[in-house]
Fold this protein.
Amino acid sequence: MSRETYRGLTIFLTVLCVVLLLGLAFTVSNYGSSLREKDEVIASLNDRLNTVEEWLRENVSYYEGEVYSLREELESRELEAEALKAQVEALKAQVAELQSRLEALRGARLIMVNLKGEDARPFLGNPYLRVYGAVCNVGLETAYNSRLHVVAYQADGVVAIDTYVILGDVEAGTWRNVDAKIYYTGGALANWTMTPEWVSMTEVVRFERLEIPAAYAVYDAVRKAWTVTLEVGNTGTLDVMLTDVSVNGRPFSTYMGQVTVSPSLVNGIPVLTGEYVTVKVVIGVDGFKSGQAVTVTLHTSSGRDYSKTVVLP
């Protein structure tokens, strides 16, 4: 290789190296610029990330507080709801009790007010139990066929009295005063009970009707008197109280002891619906004779009369 050729090659290689160095320097410069730009972008993103993180931290605390507050309010509302449920159940119980009381009062209801009994044993005359006081209807409807069931016992357990004091119909909110003497025989009374009874019905046709299916007379030669026995049945729907007895159109009391009636009519003789009682009329011989027709008439508290005629044997 000649010197000129070598020299030319050296110059070419030198120029090439310079060009490569310049290109490398340019490339390095551009890469550095790109890195700076990337660093700036990364720094900006980091700033935004820090800002978002800070916002999140602040808002998380705020919303955590809100959630805690809402939970407390929810728990408070749940407690209020439970309290209201308890109040509702208590009110339901009160309503049920009031409805029960209203149902109890819807019909008739008789109560005794200062109703007392006294065992009276007068020196002359038969002993009697005096029942006095009042009976009140505290219900909302009329008490029909009202009566007071009186049962009295003597010391040996014998039932001395088992009868009724007829009160009739007692309208709602009204009173019925009671003052009755119930005669009996035997020893003093040990105890007694008084129980009000009634019927709460309006749909049944209410009427009074007594029947006397059997009536007969028997002569007692020892006493010189006839005993007229009447079997009296109540086939109506109303309790009936017998208040007087007439013989041949005259009240028995006008015969001046010549005519007596048992049971006693002092307080009347109750004839309850569906029941039968026996009424005996004792007639002395004065003014009467064998073969004579005698008409016995029963008078009731309602003003009705029921008669039966028998022939004295």
User: Anything to note?
Assistant: The first helix runs from residue 3 to 106.
